[in-house]
Specification:
A hairpin with a 4-residue loop joins strand 4 and strand 5. The model has no long low-confidence stretch (mean pLDDT 86). It is built from 1 helix and 5 strands, in the order E-E-H-E-E-E. By secondary structure, the protein is mainly beta. The strands form 2 sheets. A 3-stranded antiparallel beta sheet has the order 1-4-5, with no helix packed on it. A two-stranded antiparallel ribbon has the order 2-3. It is 8% helix and 36% strand.
């Protein structure tokens, strides 16, 4: 497993269904798991682990 980061210009969230429209509410409403939000000018960022063998990215959000 290689440690690294997932980054985006918008909040990073897991949602139970694909969103058709981006709004801050859609990414932070009930049912969404917010992994990272922006802080000032910094892009949202969350620690992620990459397994190059099985081609999976794992994000531990237990401390979120």
């Amino acid at each position: 497993m290689l440690s690294g980061f997932m980054q985006n210009s918008k909040p990073i969230s897991w949602t139970p269904k694909k969103l058709k429209l981006f709004t801050h509410y859609n990414f932070t409403n009930a049912g969404a798991v917010v992994l990272s939000e922006s802080e000032g000018f910094a892009a949202p960022c969350v620690i992620a682990y990459n397994c190059p063998v099985c081609k999976k990215i794992i994000i531990d959000y237990a401390d979120r």
